[in-house]
Amino acid sequence: MKRKTAKEILAESFREVAEKKPIDMITIKDITENCGYSPATFYRQFSDKYDLIAWDYIQRTTAIMNKVGVNEYKWRDTLYDGADFWQENKEYIKNLLLHTQGHESFVRYLSEANTAHLTRCILKLTGKKMLDADTEIYVRVYCYGTVQTVCDWMLDRIDLDIQHLSELFEKSLPEPLKEYLY
């Protein structure tokens, strides 16, 4: 049996508190009291709540990205599972978008995190140590565009079901990236 780590428990506690309170109003005390930990335990794991948010996002989305190229798991499946993750966590993500040091900071973080995820995925699939300059730009353009679109979708500015959204993201993948992901 795998026991949850202190980081996992704190992240879960944060998400529970975020169901009832705007992110910018959540304190470390709120998080630790919710799970029975001390603030000292929190600070041994994270520098602040934004560090926790970043760690939690990476942990929860890495599992999706790590499946690319394994057991017939296709890029199309990744897009669908990503959209499903966003839909399942919609209220939490909306809270993050609307209540973290301004809308742009969380969007920028998501863009950078997704760019890092996709870069690692391509490097893993190709066995290369780094991307060439052109491929790096294609990854950035794709990730920054899809993240902004997902944010608009999360904030109900775009009305699509997850199947249609993931299909559009698949169709918008730059041609040079298709050779790596298909």
Gist of the model:
This protein has 182 residues and is mostly helical. The protein has helices at 6-18, 28-35, 39-45, 49-65, 75-88, 90-98, 103-126, 133-154, 162-171, 175-181.
Question: Would you write up a description of this structure?
Answer:
- The structure is a single chain.
- It contains 10 helices and no strands.
- The protein is globular.
- The mean pLDDT is about 90.
- The N and C termini lie far apart (about 35 Å).
- The longest helix is centred in the middle third of the chain and has 24 residues, at about 105-125.
- The protein has helices spanning about 5-20, 30-35, 40-45, 50-65, 75-90, 90-100, 105-125, 135-155, 160-170, 175-180.
- The chain is about 70% helix and about 0% strand.
- Total domain modules: 2
Tally of DSSP helical segments = 10
What is the straight-line distance between the termini?
36 Å
Unreliable runs: none
- What is the helix fraction of residues, given as a range? over 70%
Largest sheet: none
Note the overall shape. globular
Tell me the CATH architecture of the largest domain: Orthogonal Bundle
What proportion strand? under 5%
Q: Give Rg in angstroms.
A: 17 Å
Mean pLDDT: 90
> What is the tally of beta strands?
0
CATH level-1 class of the largest domain: Mainly Alpha
CATH topology of the largest domain: Tetracycline Repressor, domain 2
Please provide the ordered H/E string of secondary-structure elements. Answer: HHHHHHHHHH
Helix/strand class: mainly alpha
